[in-house]
Amino acid sequence: MKFFKKTDLIIISVILAVSAAAWFAYQHSFGQERAEAEIYYYSELVETVALDQGIEKTFSIPQDEHVVFHLYADGTIRFEESDCPDKVCIHAGRLGTVGQYAACLPNGIILKIVPVNGHHEEDVDITVGN
């Protein structure tokens, strides 16, 4: 009794190869690009943070001091603390690649990673996952 047919293995291999190629293409196109974080409070841009490597700090925005961000020395940023009930924003983890985002919806705050050189029509708006 065979668990897989030969054609099943070929199809799975092709799917994995295409997925790996797409991931490498994405990383090559957007993974190495200089980025900055934009912090929005109820759809209004309130702060832009340069994701320069070597700088580490913890800060909040004046509009909601109960939400704390942490900028890491490796050029990533995350929600450190929040008074929201579900803490989904904190569990989003570190962000550092253009197109990544995290949101604290109860507090109306969105953290979005964008390219330093501005937005272009062909840029990725948002990516889902890590």
From TrEMBL:
<keyword id="KW-0812">Transmembrane</keyword>
<keyword id="KW-1133">Transmembrane helix</keyword>
<feature type="transmembrane region" description="Helical">
    <location>
        <begin position="7"/>
        <end position="26"/>
    </location>
</feature>
<keyword id="KW-0472">Membrane</keyword>
<dbReference type="InterPro" id="IPR038690">
    <property type="entry name" value="NusG_2_sf"/>
</dbReference>
<protein>
    <submittedName>
        <fullName>NusG domain II-containing protein</fullName>
    </submittedName>
</protein>
<dbReference type="Pfam" id="PF07009">
    <property type="entry name" value="NusG_II"/>
</dbReference>
